[in-house]
Each structure stands twice: as structure tokens, then as C-alpha cells.
Specification:
Shape of chain A: globular
Number of domains of chain A: 2
Low-confidence stretches of chain A: 1-17, 553-562
Low-confidence stretches of chain B: 1-9
Largest interface: A-B, 47 and 36 residues
CATH topology of the largest domain in chain A: Cytochrome C Oxidase, Chain A
Strand content of chain A: under 5%
CATH architecture of chain B: Up-down Bundle
Number of helices of chain B: 6
Oligomer: heterodimer
Strand order of the largest sheet of chain A: 1-2
Order of helices and strands of chain B: HEEHHHHH
Mean pLDDT of chain B: 92
Structural class of chain A: mainly alpha
Distance between the termini of chain B: 49 Å
Radius of gyration of chain A: 25 Å
Largest sheet of chain A: 2 strands, parallel
Helix content of chain A: 55-70%
Order of helices and strands of chain A: HHHHHHHHHHHHHHHEHEHHH
Structural class of chain B: mainly alpha
CATH superfamily of the largest domain in chain A: Cytochrome c oxidase-like, subunit I domain
Number of strands of chain A: 2
Distance between the termini of chain A: 42 Å
Number of helices of chain A: 19
CATH architecture of the largest domain in chain A: Up-down Bundle
Chain lengths: ~650, ~220
Amino acid sequence: MATIAAPSLASAGDAYAENSGIWSWITTVDHKRIGTLYLWTALFFFLVGGFEAVLIRTQLAQPNMGFVSADTYNQLFTMHGTTMVFLAIMPLSAAFFNYLIPLQLGARDVAFPRLNAFSYWVYLFGGIFITVPILFKVAPDGGWFGYAPLTTTQFSAGINIDFWVLGLQILGVSSLAAAFNFITTVINMRAPGMTLMRMPMFTWMSFVVQFLVILAFPVITIALFFLMMDRFFGTQFYAIAAGADPLLWQHLFWVFGHPEVYILILPAFGLVSEVLPTFSKKPLFGYNVMVYSGIMIGTLGFGVWAHHMFAVGMGAVADSIFSLMTMLIAIPTGVKIFNWIATMWSGEIRFTVPMKFAIALIGMFTIGGISGVMHSSPPADLQQTDSYFIVAHFHYVLFGGSIMGIFAGIYFYFPKMTGRFLDTTLGNWHFWLNFIGFNLAFFPMHFSGLLGMPRRIYTYDAGQGWDLFNLTSTIGTYILVVATSIFVWNFLRSRTRGAVAGNDPWGAATLEWSIPSPPPEYNFAQIPEVTSRYPLWDLKDPAKTAGIEHSHADAMTITDAHAVPMHEETERHTAKSLGIPMPFPTAKPFFTALAMCAMIGGLLVMRTGNMGLALAVMIGSAALMVGGLYSWLTSPLE
Amino acid sequence: MSSHADTAHHHYTTTGLEHRKLAIWAFIGSECMLFASLISTYLIYKGRSIVGPFPHTEWVNEAGQVFKPILDIPVTSASTFVLLMSSLAMVLALQAVQLKDTPLPAGANWWTRIQRSSQTWLLATALLGMTFLGFQAYEFTSFVHEGLTIKTNLFGSTFFTLTGFHGAHVTAGVLWLFTLLWIDRTRGLGPKDELIVDIAALYWHFVDVVWIAIFTLVYLIQ
């Protein structure tokens, strides 16, 4: 690709010149820079989780392999799941929440910029806390679901599970803080005229996800707190001998865990709902129904948790109810699939790289969705549970769904974030190798699962009909390694050498494309006034949105003096020259986050037997945290 | 909007409400799930303890030692009353802050004067909260003396964790109230500060409501 030095980029460099260096990143409260930090960190953890998967698949390539020990294998599959769920997919979504929600709403930042920085730092420290033990072979080894009583000290005496219990607790704080922030941002920071039903679909789905986070995470917080109390202070929440219920953890975990599945997938649904209309040159089909089905998925998601537990013997009534609820949830999900297809129907489709990933999501997620409906039936589930069929199912949903959607988002929004395109040739190689590798890796698992291969075993005997399927899965995984390497190369290279993208390289419809790429620190020199769902198409191609409801600019009550009708911004200024107040950079969230993680992590010192030291670390860090909070809350924002 | 128009950092918001007001409601929603999980676990484990002491029934151990029902409902009723009164004081504190700039009517009596003293009511709320915590400390110590710790049985684990979580929330609230009191003493709280008192009050009332649920489900229902 030819590289052109664009004037807009040169000035972007000037604008950010004073903002370089590591200290500027530690003190930043700019939602775009925090989004960038999320993106880089989450991609790093995505590679870590992927590497763990490669080791797992290598061990399983052939029967009776001795590549890793059973103990190491337990740590690998536990950390693969934990990393991908909590350190890769959730924060990759968070990268987009941070970067896009304020831009799509026509806002200059999130509601609480410093809390936003705090969320990121807590995520980073929590991620390090939970990941580093694997380097010393003491990583958590109880599965990403951490079933108690298996994870109580009686059965898991080592320090491994301690890292998991405390690490997840830290990560929960990050997600909750971010969710309060985004809920407030979406409700309260929409540009004039941006009614709820005019919000871009990505923002809508993210909005739903934040409610899932604030309602689901407290439940795992409590489940983890019980486990921590059991492990460190001798309580009996999960002690069967004392009369505890062996299913308590499973219920609490899955009351969190099933909404968590939608926390992982809905942002990807939102991203492809931005990509598909853009490259079909048509408004999203059935916008209202897409919103309602997203809300419906989120709501029903709280009523299906026990379908993870059909095998425990809950009785016919409970099984039937949860089975029915699970089948119901296929309806709003199916609605989304058909609406995406209808969006493409008779559109002028451009098969760009993001479009390919978006279409792949529709197909691959549907496969995962259908196998999900299969085991919503308890009799079928009893045959499939704990087998590789389930592994195939949730990888079609999470890789075929979430990851495909996130890649669509990365290719789509990279030009907005950096001002340059990701290379198309490399992108195509990435897409096809990713698509082929993914299907080779996970489709055979349906068969090995139905042939009876259980999950989580570290090796297996030959002659059970599983050999070929396992070898194919491993080859698929290696192809995914090649695909991902191409992506990493493309990502690193295109930042400085990609073809230059303007404000609106794809001809998209929403506000983020009306401002320069990368956006200036203040986002919008003037807050736009929105009269429909597709402000930029109104401006550039009114025919495309003629059939859509609009409000008249004159009829709007404009409460903000800056409010102006929609226009495209081409010039780049500094916030100072425009007189826009920006939040001060501050390291207080960073240090507060560090102190909070030290406070929670300080419990580990108890394992040395030195209670005095443990108390000193925890109380000292708590004091620092409270001091940090006071200093943060009493200093002005801007 | 008008009540916020004179704040130092006036921003346009879609709803006209301050960001922090919305955020505290989201936070309270989240806290509901936290306490719902704790209370559900307590109820699921109710009556499942293998050894005593028990909350509402006597227990005789192998050595023939008799343990009386451990919950002291009269004492806890008193502490519940104290906590409820703290909510009343909180309401009066908010009112006093809102009326700070309104001149007293001519011939106002001592009660009207004291109603306008935000420092009095903030201090009263905090002290009532601390009294509640004192009751809880007394209760916890006496339970330990009677042989119930977090390690004794499922009742001990769930009871101390649930009420301890609530006590920690009250403690955080007391710190918050003293912070407001300190701000009031150093620079004075007035109508422009309504929001920061209001969100503290919302939190405080929420913690109070949670206690009513705990008192009913743990203490009163046998």
C-alpha cells in the first residue's frame, strides 16, 4: 500500500506531541486514550490466552501425549478460559465502549473521566495478578467456573485458587466501576436531539450490557467472597460436612455466569450492527425490534442460569422451566439474525474485511446458537453435557460470535482510531485463515463430543474414534496461530504505514465519522444537533434516509449554547484554542487502583503464616486507597 | 436545571439531572443484587446447621451443655430503632442544607433554629449510625462468648457475613457523613451542595432499608 503523509495526521502529531511518554498514559483521563490502553492490553491477553490454547491443543493432538503434565494442563485450561473471558473479550468490548460510546453520542468524554481511568488500571493490575502465577506453575487450576467445594482448601490446598479468587474480585471492581460510568454517560450525555431510539446500535447494545454487569457481577462478588472466607477464615459456606449445599456455588456462579455470556456477545452484536448497514448502504432493518430484542436477551438472560446444571438433578419442574426459558431466548436472538440478513438484502454490498468478519459472525454464531437450542432440552443435554460437544458450542458462540464481531470492529474502527487503514491484503489473509482455522479447530469437536470425549481431560487412549477429530482440531489451532500472527503484523505495521483514511472512510452514518481521524482530544468542536438515526447520511446522501422519521431542527429545544445542526468537522484545533475545558490529567486513579489491588492481594501474605505482616499490608494499602480517593474526590475535574 | 445553574462546573446533561445522581441510583441497584445474594444464602442455609448454637431454638451438645436461642430480639429492636431514627436525622440534614440561604422567619423558636443547623443533623446521623455499630459490636462479642463464631456452623458463617457486610456499609456511611460534616465546618454546605448531601442521603436510606429486610428475615421470622 502506498503511504501518503496526510496534513491531518501531521497536525494530529502536533496535538499529541505534549501527550507522549509513559507518564501521559498513566495520567490520562481521555476516553479515547483509555480505550486505546484497553485495546492494547486486551489484545496482549488475547495472545496469552491463545498461547495457552495452543499448548492445550498440542497436548491433545494425539492419544497419550506427554507434552504437559496433568497438573499443568489443569492450569492451562483454567487460565485459557479465565483469560479469554475476563482479560480478553470483556476488555476488548470495553475498548470499544470507551472509544465509541462518547463519540457515537456526540459527547466530549464519559460522565466520570477519572473513574474511567481507575477502571482501566484496576483491570490491568488484576490481569497481571491473575496471569503471573502461571509463569511459576502455580496458576489457578479449578476451571474458569471454579466450582466449590472443589475449590475449597479441603480439595485445593495450594495458593493457585487464591490467585483466582482474589484476582476475579479485583476484575469485578473494574467492570462495575466502568458500568456505572457508561450507564450515566448514555443516559445523560447524548447530544441534543439524540433520543434513546436514535442511538447507534452499538451504543444501545453496550447500554444493555452495562445493566447486565451491574446486576450480575454483585452475585459473583458474593460467591467469591464466600469462597475467600472459606479459604482464609474458616467459614463453612461450601463445607459439605457442615451441612452446606454442594450446589450453592453453582447457582450463584451461573446466576452471574449466564448473563456474562450476553455481556460477552452483545457488544459484538452491536459492532456488526454498525458494519452491516454501512457496507450494505442501507439503514439497519428493524431498528426498533433490534433494540427490543437486545433488551429481551438481556432480561431473559437472568432466567436461564440453571440450564448449566441439568445434570445435577434439580427435578422435572425446575428442568422444564429452565428449558423453556432457554428456548425462549432463541427467539430474540433469531430476530437479530434475520434482521441482519434483511439489512443486507438487496443492499449494495461491499465485501470489505470488516464486512467479511461481520457476515462470518452471522453464520458462525448461528451454528453455536442452534447447538445451544439442542442442549436446552434436558434429555439431550444429559448426553452432551461435559463433553466436547459443549466445547464446540461455546466456541462457536464466543469465537464465532464475539471474536469475529470484535475483529469486524477492529478493522472497521482502526481508521477512526489511528487515521490509517489496516492493510486489506493482509486483512483478507487473516480473515480466510481465521475462518478456516476456526472451523477446523472447533467443528470436529461436535463429533468427538458426541462420540463421548469428556471435557477437561488431559489425555485419552487411542481407538475410541477420537484421534482424527483431535488431530484436525489441533491443525486448525495452528492455522489460527498463523492467522493471528498476520493480524498482529498488520496491526503493528498499519499504525504508521497504512493508507491514510479521512473522516469517513467507509461512508458510514453515525456521529463518530463526522470528526477527524484520529479524533481531537475534545472530539467535537461544536456539539452537533441530531435529527435522525443516521445524521451523516442525512448530510451526505439524504435519499438513503428519506424513508426514516426525522425531527425538524427548529422544533428542538436546544438547551446548550454550543448546539449546532449536524455538520462535518474537517479542521483540527486544540481544546485550549477553542476554549473547551478538558479534564486535568491525574495519576490519582492509577495510585488508588494500585492501593486497592494491594489491599485485596495482601490477603495472600496470610499464606506465609505471618498474620501481622498481612494485616500491615492490607491496612496500609487500605489507608493509601482511602487517602487516594479523598485526594481524587476533593480535587477539581477540569 | 435551575437549581444547578449556579454550580461551578455547569454542563449540559440530557436529563437535566447531575451525573452523580444517576450513578448513585445505578450503584444502589447493583447493591440490591449484592444483598439479595447474601440474604438468599442465609435463607437457603436456614435450619441446615448440624451443630448449635441456633438462632431461634435451644441446643444441647454431647456434653449436656445447654445453649439458649442466640438472637436477642429486644436488643436488636432497639438498635433497629436507632438506625431508623438516623434516617430521620439524615432527612433533616438535607433539609437544613437546602434551606441554608433562606432567612429564618421572624420570631423563630429554638426548634426552627435547630432545624436549620445542618451540622447538628449530620452529626446526629453519624452518631446514631455509630450507636448502631456499637450495638452490633456488642452483639458480635456476646455471640462469640456464647460459643458462636464464623467457624462454628452454617448459621455462624452466614449470619456474621451478612450482618458484617451490612455493618461495613454503615461504617462507610459514617465516614461519608463525617466527611460532609468536615466540609460543612470548613467551608459551609449550602443549597449549591444539595447534590453531595443528597447522594449521601440516598446511600444512607438504602443501607437503612436493607437493615429492615435483614431484621425481618433474620431476627423476626423464626
